[in-house]
Design a protein that fits this description.
Length: 199
């Protein structure tokens, strides 16, 4: 919402805030209507989509830290991708409250470290709040997984998902094989899944 909000007229802004208020959502932050155990597609975005993770070594480091963080709370990890300005992770968790605390700590630590490294302490907000989408069923799960794996292609970084170094597609290639990945892509097409989420 923060990026669309800035483009709205004053009347559109009032209507948007009123609609969120009626639904019981935070007025200027992503809502988290589900808190219970389950599978979620979680997205973290650099503030205003600035490519804070532009350097490959920073994506290497963040990928390791993200996966390790979710393993530390005994989450089941279905897939992930790290891009220069955002990430997605598909995870089965016991509570979204635990995820909130985990990502607050991870985002806070990386913000401080990266701002120090880039000499931007006190000048740059690194992260915007995370968003979540609860996974409804098996089809939704595999659409989310395919969405994650093809995200670098969607955003124009590569023409082939195997050419991007920071998605879980490489793990699936090694453990399940290319034929399984192709069949999953065919059986659970992404379509317009995620339209407008991370533009």
């Amino acid at each position: 919402m923060p990026y669309e909000y800035r483009k709205m007229t004053p009347e559109e802004r009032r209507a948007a805030v009123e609609q969120r208020y009626k639904r019981g959502y935070p007025l200027h932050a992503p809502p988290h209507p589900y808190r219970e155990a389950g599978w979620y597609l979680l997205t973290g975005t650099n503030f205003e989509h600035k490519p804070v993770m532009h350097a490959p070594d920073r994506r290497d480091e963040f990928e390791t830290r993200l996966v390790d963080a979710f393993r530390s709370i005994d989450a089941d990890i279905g897939g992930w991708v790290i891009l220069p300005n955002h990430y997605h992770i598909l995870a089965g968790v016991n509570s979204l409250d635990t995820v909130s605390a985990l990502l607050q700590q991870l985002h806070g630590t990386t913000s401080r470290e990266w701002n120090l490294a880039d000499e931007l302490t006190g000048q740059r907000q690194v992260w915007y709040k995370f968003t979540d989408r609860r996974i409804r069923d098996e089809r939704h799960y595999y659409q989310a997984l395919n969405y994650i794996h093809y995200n670098p292609v969607k955003h124009g970084y590569v023409n082939d998902p195997y050419m991007w170094a920071w998605p879980s597609v490489h793990v699936y290639f090694d453990t399940k094989g290319r034929d399984w990945l192709r069949a999953t892509r065919k059986d659970y097409p992404v379509g317009d899944f995620g339209a407008g989420w991370d533009d």
